[in-house]
Design brief:
One of its GO terms (molecular function) is phosphatidylcholine lysophospholipase activity. By secondary structure, this protein is of the alpha/beta class. Helix content is 49%, strand content 17%. It has helices at residues 6-27, 51-54, 58-69, 87-92, 94-97, 122-141, 156-161, 168-192, 200-210, 228-241, 298-304, 306-310, 339-344, 355-397, 402-415, 418-439, and strands at 44-49, 76-81, 105-109, 145-148, 249-255, 261-266, 268-275, 279-286, 313-317, 324-329, 332-338, 346-347, 445-452. The longest helix has 43 residues, at 355-397. It starts with 5 loop residues before the first helix and ends with a strand.
Length: 453
Amino acid sequence: MRIIPLSMVLFACCLLLAGPAMAQEDAQKFPAPLPKLELSDGDSIVFLGDSITHQCLYTQYVEDYFYTRFPQMRLKLHNAGVGGARAWDALARFDEDVAAYKPKYVTILLGMNDGSYRPYDETVFQTYRQDMTELIGRLQSIDAMPIPMTPTMFDARAARMGNRQRDPEAVALYNSVLAYYGTWLRDVAQQQGFGFVDMWSPLNNITIEQRKTDPDFTLIRDAVHPGPDGQVVMATAIVNDLGLQRQLSNIRITRGADGEPAVRASGGEVSDLEFTDEGVSFTWSAKGLPWVLPEDAREGAKLTRLGHRLSREALEVHGLPAGRYTLTIDDAEVGRWSADALARHIELQENEKTPQYQQALTVAGLNKQRNEGPVRSLRGEWSQFQRYARTKRSVKENPGNEQLETQLMALEERIAGMDERVEGFNRQAKEFEDQIFEVNQPQPRRYVLRRVE
């Protein structure tokens, strides 16, 4: 029998004892992806992207969410999208259009243009990879958390139904190219502990589900730019994937055998609770408002079940005698329900008759004006700058080209005074924000459930 030296036995024991510790040490080298946004008053969020961000739609809807869900926090929300942008273009305007806003978080929606609308090309992807890697590094250098988001869907069926002439091979394969780009971004986010939002999957999933009954259905009529309904899908993806609060409030009122009322509530506080022979009444002081979107986005809210899933405002009352009850909020009737329905619970977030819904609708209207006015004008300035930056690069790459030099001089004239104009549009946007924060503060509401014949 072979005798094993004592020294080898001791060495093996040391390895066994050290193994779990070494494994734990190795695991600690890989950070966990960002579980959720940690927000405080004054935090800044920048939405960096291309024309899909420049549309000022999904960003507007997410802003509506923040304005109504966290009215006690004055967040700084900045759209940094420019039509046609690639990752290189975001680098060219990084200091003034991103870093200047001192962001805590920066969502990045780039890739649709970077893929060049062609079948997969390794050289094209490596350019995107290099520029995105540099962009992420720049964000880290200013202590901002990068939140890469997958490029959105390229709708091949919409492209085939359209009148525009496109390369059939590109039409057939480009959505897959974008899926590849998004998968790479997901791996980067996971390995480095960033936030991450999957835009591609929900757009594709809803599209294929709807086409089971409507083969011509599309959220993206031009194959590239989602309309308002598609942009609602994108906004809900941000809320879901970044761990933001989903339920708005829940009120559960019971009446015990002894007749004494009891309440359990989240998202606010119940006071002045009283049961009578006719019903029940109380005052509700909510912490937020329902997430209400402009009229042109309502179908997207239905497709995503936005209200129930991300803005649930529930009321549940037990102990009412059988019968039907009318609910008034601040003396305005909002609906009638049976005692059984009230015991199961009703949801009010999409009830247009409630004062809180109308209050949130006013917020959405003001924010729509903000985005269609000064925010779009601001993005127009950066669109001019993008043309200037690209032409300047071309002049550098093609010295002596008089045509390019002439174009550059013309663009220099166009961007002259841009800093002042940008400052003016930011000031106008803030004026709308000031109005929003005057009307988005929740008010105590008097609820009265009264039995009716």
